[in-house]
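A common beginner's mistake is to predict each chain separately and then try to dock the pieces by hand. The better habit, illustrated here, is to supply every component at once so that their relative placement is modeled jointly.
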Amino acid sequence: MPQFVRADLRLDRWLETVGRQPQDFPPDVITDLKTKGDLLSVFEVTDAVTAERIAVAVGAGKGRPDDITYAVFERAAIEALGIPINKNEGGTIDAVVNTVHHDLHVATATKLVELAGVIASGQVVSILKKDAIVLLRRGFESGQLDHTKRPDLSKRVNAVIPTHHEPPPVVEE
Amino acid sequence: MTRGSSSSTARIEEVSARRGHVIGSAATAPEVVPGTYTVPLSAETPRMRPFGALLEFPLVEGQGVLVAGNILEQYVQHPAQRTVDLATPQLAQPFGGFRTILFQAATTGNVLVLRPAVMPISGLPALLSSTDPELGGSRLIRGQFAKAAALAAEEWFEDGVESRFSRALSSLLYAYSEGAVAALEAFVDSPGTNVDVAVEAAKWLGGVDHAATKLYRRTLLEKMLNSPAPRLRQGAAAGLASMDAPDSLDVLRRALDREPNRLLRGYLQLVANQLERTRACLNL
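With all components supplied together, the output reads:
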């Protein structure tokens, strides 16, 4: 079943959604969903792109490593709300993650509250800063994250970037 | 710090307890008199900090030349002892029980933050009760803190983005040391405190690099795990995760056992797992 990821959440703001109806959520939950131009950025989980990879790619857009919190929820639940979904290129430093980016067009505040309800009822996951540093380092070193776009962060997590790729050894028969 | 070659830290207050004035403030403060001073440095002495971070604090004009003794730039683990000529001593924190002196180092452009002998944190009678003036919980520092907190209420906090509020807290910490933590404690305990700001403060408490207040900050974070506000409990746990001190493990486990919030319970479990791994590494 197709799933979306909304990353860039701040966990503490979502704690008091537990056991509440969306209309009773604290307002900070809604403001944590930073819409711009009435659009909310999400990514779709695929066989090639895990939710964790998406969250790390979004986390790599920040100034420094920190806790990374994201929510995984059903695409069908968004469709059931009648929220238009537009696939377009994402803006992270992970080129593959960018291919699974979507914008949700949230037309009204009521829809945003309903969307918050879907997100809160999904799986909210946190990666602690210490683990985030390891994941970011791996991302830069493997090339999944483009270190040239975030050299400061790459250095901060002590990523060792290969300066060149050795050609595979020639094996003589 | 003493004049001449003696090295009693108690003399700091004697030397400093002279009249002075604060630029831009009506408060009075001690003044450093002209002379040559020897600075006794110890594990308690904070390392040198960039001057710019402290500029927002009221400085007191001073005179004279300070000749420092042993400068411990990176706490005691890196005892880079050397003599530095310091010029134009500037005094800060002009509140009761003079706590901090700033000296601009002519040779490095840095400021050395010195404090009089500070009681070990375990001996502080008012630990977790910020009203004790020995902690520097004066009106001035509380006023500075309140100003920072008021500005912070207008700020949007994001994980992974250093906030102006946390930078202000760091400046307060390097100027006032325990006094800044005490002011933060009073802020968090106050009814009506903006919880978003308090959470940011809790996260900062765990992440800031300041050895002299580490125990106080950790103890305060452990106390905050008992807060009635789940958001603040989460901020405290995030702070403890940043500190990565296995000594907090027992307190954290107890918090985990009584935590009613499902989401927060999961987070506390993550932090407990991390501290357990850290403890295992340390015990290797």
